[in-house]
Amino acid sequence: MQPRDLSDHVAYEAGRGIEEVARELDRDPSEFVKLASNENPHGPSPAAAVAVREAASSVNSYPKAAHADLTSAVADRWDVTDGQVWLANGGDGAIDYLHRAVIEPGDTVLVPSPGFAYYGMSSRYHHGDVREYDLSKADDFVQDADTVLEAYDGDRIVFLTSPHNPTGSTIPLADVERLAEATDDETLLVVDEAYGEFADRDSAVALLEGRDGFDARDDVAVLRTFSKAYGLAGVRLGYAVVPDEWADAYARVNTPFAASELACRAGLAAIDDDEHVERTVGTARESRAYMREHIDSHVWESEGNFVLVEAGDAAAVAEEMQRRGVIVRDCSSFGLPGCIRITCGTEAETERAVETLNAVLADLDVDPETADDPDAEVADT
Asked: What region holds the Aminotransferase class I/classII large domain (predicted)?
């Protein structure tokens, strides 16, 4: 017996970890700094860490009460009903739920290129087809309604990423509203705001609720995560905020108890830990500014907790930086083989990354103006 034909599927490749790289290079892990996966340099919310320790003795029970409590806390944060909050095993779990609720076999999903590979992966898992709209490097990866509408062809779901990974660009809410008005009634716009805390932008939740001068819409959903600003990537906790009319669908599409007891307890503690989030966001802003000012190559403006850097031969640059103890993301798999992505670290980590990158660019005699290959295959995120 064999599994179904998976030849159209790509494998997700996460950023390489310190332990993995250290073993490969036969080095001590303490020699390395990892700035490849957009993780929180300050670790988890301290309140969440305490909550996880205190909840450890209760993991023999299913997280029914904790799940309900966290749902209510998230709903209060966004001023929506509990039924509009779909907790999930990370933001990717919420993507799966939306596909389950919307996609019929053969429906198409429109995704950005470059972009987060899991949009397309999840669509294919649910027997949908994937189409792409291009964000142009020549236009500094600008996101607007026209760019999406040029590619749109009645697709069932359209994914928008704001801030966008790996470029850091955002899309104005007015453009999201225009897209919602211009696309078919049965098209869902999914606005992925995984990095939303780092951006000086209002959330697209305003479009669901008819706030800030927008009309309320039933064709927009918003994705959020506890992985980035809250530092809970390891417990896997994300959610979708959906139109009020969708409330009953959650019970029919979610995996039973997908958000674990530890994840829910961590989320309940973290959501009120404003000090940790503010510190994290402040660090990211300072790090972005420092890298834009001091890196000896083009650095795109970013509203995420990372920057995209022109590196010429990204694979060679990333490999050499890794050898020198700084792990960054080669963006060849995004279809950007001339670029690397660097996560915003602490002051010391950021300074080390900049110093290392500048030295590598000089030592390898890399031309940072080398253009990306637009035909490169997008394989992961």
From this structure: 31-357
Residues 6+ apart with CB under 8 A from 319: 330
Q: Residue 239: in which H helix or E strand, if any?
A: strand 238-241
DSSP string for 315-340: HHHHHHHHHTTEE-EEGGGGT-TTEE
Q: Which fold has domain 46-270?
A: Aspartate Aminotransferase; domain 2 (3.40.640)
Q: What angle do CA 207, 212, 213 make, to 5 degrees?
A: 85
Beta carbons of 240 and 86 less than 8 angstroms apart: yes
Does 260 score more than 90 pLDDT?
A: yes
CA atoms within 13 A on the CB side of 355: 9
Residue ranges of the chain assigned to CATH 3.40.640.10: 46-270
pLDDT at position 367: 67
Q: Following DSSP, what letter does each residue of 165-187 receive, concatenated?
A: TTT-----HHHHHHHHHHS-TTP
Check residue 381 and give its pLDDT. 40
Residue 340 has pLDDT above 50, yes or no: yes
Only one residue has tokens 């697709």, namely 155
Fold of 18-39+275-363: Aspartate Aminotransferase, domain 1 (3.90.1150)
Instruction: Give the CA-trace dihedral at 145, 150, 151, 155, to 10 degrees.
Output: 60
Q: Which residue has the tokens 């696309």?
A: 183
